[in-house]
Predict the 3D structure of the following.
Amino acid sequence: MATKRTPITKAGIATKLFVLDTNVLMHDPTSLYRFEEHDIYVPIMTLEELDNNKKGMTEVARNARQASRTMDEIVSGYMNGIEEGIPLEGPSKDLASGRLFLQTEAIAPNLPEGVPTAKADNQILAVVMFLSERFPGREVILVSKDINMRIKARALGLAAQDYFNDKVLEDSDLLYSGMRELPVDFWETHGREMESWKEGGRTYYKVKGPMCADLSINELVFQEGEKPLHAIVKQRTGPSAILETLIDYGHQKNNVWGIVARNREQNFALNLLMNPEVDFVSLLGQAGTGKTLLTLAAGLTQVLETKRYSEIIMTRVTVPVGEDIGFLPGTEEEKMAPWMGALEDNLDVLNGGVDDGGGYGGEWGRAATRDLIRTRIKVKSLNFMRGRTFINKFLIIDEAQNLTPKQMKTLITRAGPGTKVICLGNIAQIDTPYLTEGSSGLTYVVDRFKGWPHSGHITLQRGERSRLADHAADIL
């Protein structure tokens, strides 16, 4: 092992040696290139576990095969002196500048008594312990997604950490909310050279000042008080920005399929949902904030009234909260029906609203409207999305917090010309066992789409379901 050398970075700091657990490679096959200038070490037991998990069509099996292929590409091009470490600059296209070390010698499991040495996790811990003793002047760290593995490593006095590269944010509280309150002195500091004009029933303000550099395109800004302002950032160039006033969907004359906004965030959401220039919308919020209801109301209006889209397509991840109820009979739509209770509940509200407000002829009119709506809403399973293209559709992805970034990319790239994609979710209600608030696909797209002129995001904060639901969300 040539790790006896103490590699030095440009800053003069000794690089670390990261020992990879199998679950890191099965979670992210490209993790071999994610450690920058540091070296990585792959124990033989990690390779054995990759081999044991490579069969099948699951995401884990696919990742195991991809990790093996990546390692094969690295190793096959560097056959001489493999124990000296394989440089990663070439294979990673300069993403990583460290070296890859493979276990090339037998390592005796020098573990405390009572720790079973036959277990794969403990053999990896023995390798970490061996490397720590061999290179006392170098930081040797185990990287594992397994919490118990990290606890055992620390109990043995070894350094261990989670794999953080897939996390968009360390703290979900720092996630972009999509809106910003303007300070009280905003017009004094930004309105000296202000230009104002009207166009298409909207008022535009061109402002200049220090705050403009922090604004994002399509960020919603507001100021309450005697002269309240609700606007969206349309352009931003250096120290200046153009603000466009919003349509007030809180007024009954601007109702969307009988629905009016009950608070400021709902009004912001409807402005994004009804804007044809915005192709991608993400709505975050706890239960009862109106995400699904607002989205369906906007979808029905633009499909049945303005004919902007041909139909609504709704999909969601089928992750059960409790025990699974087993296989479901019927067609694709019938199998998805039990997962679409939220769709049924909101359609009942929207049907009632249309009938009460529009007088469609009592029960007959309501039934006819319901049948018409049914023909324009399709429920699809995520399992059959790959390879499809949706043209001129209103695509709703519900419970998007349970999607991985890769699944989210697969879904959003289904959008063809004229299609609008809406992601709904609550990152505090993740049911998938391997996702966290920081690594959820919903967090990923909110962060990556921030500032794109054809996307918008809003975090709904006030629950409008009932006083019981609001109180339960706060105290439970």
DSSP finds 14 helices and 18 strands in the chain.
